Amino acid sequence: MKNNIIGVDEVGRGSLVGSAIICAFKSTDDIFKNFPYELRDSKKLSKKKRELIYEELKKLKLQGDANYSITFGKKKIIEKYNIHKTVLWCMSSSVKKIYQNSDKIIIDGIFIPDDLKNLDIKAVIKADDKFAQVSAASIIAKCFRDNLMNKLHTYDNRFFWHKNAGYPTKNHIESIKNFGISKFHRETYQPISQFINKL
Question: Is the pLDDT reported for residue 95 higher than 70?
Fold first, then answer.
């Protein structure tokens, strides 16, 4: 029996808005031999290429050749406990939803959730450029979160979230100065917290 690898990555850590999204993607290496696209860190792919890969990865899940789990690091939890703890908790949650005893786990970065340290697990810097499963997790999380931000933009279109995904771009910061913060902004993040007392 060939071992499955679970790759884990997150998106939205540095965003000023909404949830972080954490994905755990599980498969063998074999399924990528005939995969139609090169898997890389989602940030190094164009939006069009990410979306094409995302659709192919969803097909793998539907066919039973792979599995993945998505967990929301919600804004209120980030504000209460901080982004680092929130991401680690969500990584653990995503892994546990799809983990089986023989699985190996690779996390992008340098931190491992405490409750997973007894498993076959390692954290690797830039793992999303080195392991297909981590790349897949990165791409799924990015596309999933971008779609959420597009929906938030249709609800409140003052902040260009469909273009900046909530990150502190010049237009985003200028919009905050002009309109104030929204209920979706992370109030513990700088520069959001600086504006709160001014409203």
Answer: yes
Q: % helix / strand / coil in the chain, to the nearest 5?
A: 45, 15, 35
Least reliable range by pLDDT among 19-28, 122-131, 175-184, 190-199: 190-199
Distance separating alpha carbons of residues 128 and 132, to the nearest angstrom: 7
Write down the pLDDT at residue 194.
84
DSSP label of 10: E
Q: Which domains does the chain have, with CATH numbers?
A: 5-150 (3.30.420.10)
Euclidean distance between CA atoms 64 and 58, whole angstroms: 10
CA distance 108 to 127: 5
- CA-nearest of 75, 68, 69 to 12 is 75
Which residue type does 96 have? K
At 11 the three-state DSSP class reads strand
End-to-end CA distance of the chain: 60
